[in-house]
Amino acid sequence: MVIAVVGIGLDGQQGLSQTVQELIEQATVLAGSKRHLGYFADHPAKKLNLANFQTGIKAIAQLKLDNHSVVILTSGDPLFFGLGRLLLEKFKPEEIEFYPHLSSIQLAFNRLKMPWQDANLISVHGRSTEQLIKLFKQGKDKIAVLTDNNNNPGAIARLFLALELPVNYSFYVCEDLGDTAEKISHFLPEEITKLSNLDEYNFSALNVLILVREAQKDDLNLDNLPLIGLPDNSFLSFSDRPSLITKKEVRLAILGELALKPQQIVWDLGAGTGSVSIEIARLCPTSQIFAIEKTSMGSTLITKNSQRFRVDNIKSINGKAPEILSNLPNCDRIFIGGSGGNIVDILHTCSQKLTDRGLIVMAFATIEYQLQAINWLSNHHWQYRLLQLQISRSTPVNHLTRLTPLNPVTIITAGKQL
């Protein structure tokens, strides 16, 4: 006989269609969790608790051979991060029929009255949070998360805060959906710290987390910012790649290598969002910084971030190096954060515009461009030194902490005379 796999909600029998109820009435074996079997306590069928899945599956296979009518009870949609995938690994598709109920994520978005065809759906129930971290770094607009006791809403809030991303999310904790104890809690971006202080005991075990991206606030409390080493999440960043920013620890090393002085002219090539330029502008208000960025979105972000941090000594220029550099004034310091594959041509132009005691500092994430730069410096008899950064940040994992590495970066500091 065919095994029937029935999805069921917290409303129990009353949420099932007439067809499914009749199917269950005719069953000689009901299999499921203790909670699911509890909805049918008076049913005369043999009850099989699936607490041990492997043992339960073997029993179901034998009962099927004995021609029993088996109904397996499971939550929501069995084929959405559910029991269905595991059952299809043990039985042929023609041996199983699925009767889905609404999934908890469907219910959550409908309770929030929010369209969800564009949502990213993920489960961290007994799984790693690596995929969730990826979605955070990509700045996805809507993320639905199936949680568990370890990866509970409080733990996910702690993880998000530890990433220090320049992106904001509202957290909706949806508990016991479909039950009389149903509860939905909304945490605004500024309330995530409060959520991060909660633990598994503060939530029902039956919860789903909906994350909705919110616009970053234009205002920034400058009084709370450090003199140097600005937090990554204080900058406005690319909407589709919010993590694409020179990380704070790397910025600090770059600032040190630049050996800045007042009243200098500084070029920032491949300026991205302007994070390095803004650090320089705040440290040296009498210097003039030219931030060159080839993407129009990046140039716009540099202007917006300059306004956000209230610095007026940065000139944002949309253009491609080295062509755009010929019209710039000679400079004392150059930082190259991105070359677009033109590092040799850029260095040639920079060498003509750099003052005699000037410095060029370059940051490389790839070996090939780094080698091109070293070859050029050697061939032109420039002095240089290398600094390799291999930085890890602490990341919460359940109640423990691990070190998550950032991408390695090599910094080359060069000058005609160091």
Topology:
Elements: E1 3-8, H1 18-25, E2 29-32, H2 34-38, E3 46-49, H3 53-65, E4 70-75, H4 83-90, E5 96-99, H5 104-111, E6 120-123, H6 130-138, E7 142-146, H7 153-163, E8 168-175, E9 183-187, H8 192-196, E10 207-214, H9 248-258, E11 265-269, H10 275-283, E12 288-293, H11 296-308, E13 314-318, E14 331-336, H12 343-353, E15 354-364, H13 367-379, E16 383-389, E17 392-397, E18 400-405, E19 409-415
Parallel strand pairs: 1-4, 1-5, 2-3, 2-4, 6-7, 11-12, 11-14, 12-13, 14-15
Antiparallel strand pairs: 7-10, 8-9, 8-10, 15-19, 16-19, 17-18
Description:
It is a single chain. Helices cover 30% and strands 27% of the residues. By secondary structure, the chain is an alpha/beta fold. It folds into 3 domains: 3-102, Tetrapyrrole methylase, N-terminal domain (Cobalt-precorrin-4 Transmethylase, domain 1); 105-214, Methyltransferase, Cobalt-precorrin-4 Transmethylase, Domain 2 (2-Layer Sandwich); 222-415, Vaccinia Virus protein VP39 (Rossmann fold), CATH 3.40.50. The strands form 4 sheets. The protein has a 7-stranded mixed sheet, with helices on both faces. Strands 3-2-4-1-5 form a 5-stranded parallel sheet, sandwiched between helices. Strands 6-7-10-8-9 form a 5-stranded mixed sheet, with helices on both faces. The longest helix is centred in the first third of the chain and has 13 residues, at 53-65. The mean pLDDT is 94.
